[in-house]
Amino acid sequence: MNSHVKIDKTRISQPDAADLSRRHFLVGTAAAGLALGYSAVPGMLGADQALAAPANFDPSVWYSIAPDGIVTVTCGKADMGQHIASTMAQIVAEELGANWKDMRVQLASNDPKFNDPVLGVQITGGSWSTMMNFEAMSRAGAAGRIALTEAAAGIMGVPASELVVRDSMIAHAKAKKQMSFGDVVKSGKATKTFTPDELKAIKLKTPDRYTLIGVSVPQLDIPSKTNGAAKYGIDVMLPGMVYGAVVTPPVRYGATVTSVDDSAAKKLPGFIKAVTLDDKTGTTTGWVVAVANTYANARKAADALKVAYDGGPNAKLTSESLLTEAKRLQALDDSGEFFVKDGDTKAALGTAAKVLEAEYTTSINIHAPMEPMNATAEFKGDILHVYSGNQFATRSGAIAAGAAGIDPKFVVMHQMWLGGGFGRRLDADMMVPAVQAAKAVGKPVKVIYSRENDMTMDFSRPLTYQKIKAGLDGDGKLIAMNHDVVSAWPTKRWGIPDFLSPSVDKKGSLDAFTVNGADFFYTVPNHNVRAILNEMAHTATPSGQLRSVAPGWTFWAVESMVDELAHAVGRDPAQYRIDMLDGKGANAGGAQRLRNTLLAAMGLAGYGTRQLPQGEGMGVACVSSQERATASWTACVAHVAVAPSGEVKVKKLTVATDVGTQVHPDNIRAQVEGAALWGLSLALYEKATLKDGGIEQTNFDSYTPLRMSQLPEVAVAVIANGEHATGVGEPAVTVVAPAIGNAVFNAVGARVRSLPISAEAVKAAMKA
């Protein structure tokens, strides 16, 4: 069913190439108010407003202005607490000239007209949202302002060039006339349309003229989220709705149900049916859903079902077997595909004055957002309605259709607020049991995962194995690096060929989302990066995109190795990096911005300015996350104290990030702080393991993220230089682990190359 998802991969590497086609900017007066995808279907977003509203002004599909002057921005991105809906509204309001108190937000349906202007699909991830939508939303706002101004000029009988737009008012000083946005909308005179060329020709504001962008205005979504009005997927209530609780197999993937005994469940109150999933999309295997009149009764029924399984081909696999297979694959000369192939590493390593080799590993990691996975499905005639918070509506709609056995055009996705996502809700597994149960019982069904369901069936961050071989010349300069990255390929699992990338030698395709970051901005004349698919891990632990994706493990290896090289030649690790960030060739621009963030973090942290107590150390790292073409330049200085037991306490994290243009300063700071703490959690505390084909950790008693009592001081420096806006939700995740690892070495001389950094590993390295 994924064949219905169409993605132009070239857009991913061209974040500035906004699609300014007329379908994104339809300027005119709507005959019956705002119509947002499938609005003819009762209950769909926009349908109710369309029935009741007088003529609204719709400058684009992204927002509408009502006769009372209220501007409602439709956000095509999933809002999971990062306030992206409010950010989109802020960008529109800046160019529109609206008063912030007149702004409102709502979430888009899966109508294709709400596809991302750059990616061409509805997806939220990669820290792309602001970066890729800034220009499109700005031009949408500007187009509306121009249309309103020209209409007002005609009404007032004055030249449009003499009008001033501010705070939702259009004024002519000399004539002492003014009209509100609402007045112009009520007149019905705002009917201007723009061709794509005309839209591209609109001159947007320069940063020195911003009045809203760069201001920490009140987030529009906070009131509804604090008073209970905001509706999350778990809040959905439909007439006649029943509930489903899933029974999952002991094996993560590949099991099949051989029998279901529901005799005990039939004796329980409210039990309706046990449905064995027949998932042609391959999203789930071996699942059963118990349907009952309440969720509590569904849980009891699920516990009462006796399900027998064939464990399938992965039933005996462990984390150790996945790692062994990764090492075997890396040792093969013909494994994988080249992501980077510059110069001649073999020759350079053969003549190097010093060669260092190291292996780096990361464990399986689980998303575990606070709102459990959930979905509600309802069939209305030929139309399937799915209510859920989702990060990839385009693909998820296709999966829901596949689960139902219908064409995706008959699936209406009702986007809800997300109680956390972090990449977990890029997947649609929770929709499959809801859809098939609703079809089986003929009623709307809400499925809610238990925490155990979600942890054991998460599309997790994959276990990774990396080997780096680096060569130095007689002056200690890095002249060659081979970097092999072995893992499951999360993006390949999606089954969307256009999301894979051709290898640099054009001999095959690779999942760039497993190696991004390895193409760093250091100047190294001979550099190879090989992406190797671990098919065993790929099938046994179907992996997904966890906040920060590949840079979360590639920079762990790169920034640890760079530190090791600096120490091997007796150089300060920070200065060693600065020297390699010389901006030569293809690294021009990016290297300088990254160097500046490193210097900013060092200065704020006081790196190298004082003698630290015994057992304490500072470590540095700097990254260009997420992808090279969509980087936010980020650096970290970690200050740690290491006990004789090997226990690591992080005293302070200092993070500097270059975001280009900052839309909402407070939100950026919050995002960077949260990302840094997530990076700390991954660095020291989080680990899942596979045993007998299943994930062993089932709740927060055994999978132990960072606790409040373990929080260090976090200092953040945001560099806003007016360049193109970048993303902030993920980059700081990637920089923290290597900074901590490097700090541990500086504190006690212990080099740990596996995440998470455990006290046992540190103590063992101290003794080595």
Describe this structure in words.
This protein has 768 residues and is α+β, with helices and mostly antiparallel strands. It has three domains: 2-225, 2-Layer Sandwich (Aldehyde Oxidoreductase, domain 4), CATH 3.30.365; 233-313 and 373-448, Aldehyde Oxidoreductase, domain 4 (2-Layer Sandwich); 320-364 and 460-767, 2-Layer Sandwich (Aldehyde Oxidoreductase, domain 4), CATH 3.30.365.10. The protein has 21 helices and 30 strands. The strands form eight sheets. The protein has a seven-stranded mixed sheet. A six-stranded mixed sheet has the order 13-23-20-19-14-30, with helices on both faces. The protein has a four-stranded mixed sheet with strand order 1-2-3-4. The two termini are 53 Å apart. The model is unreliable at 1-54 (pLDDT under 50).
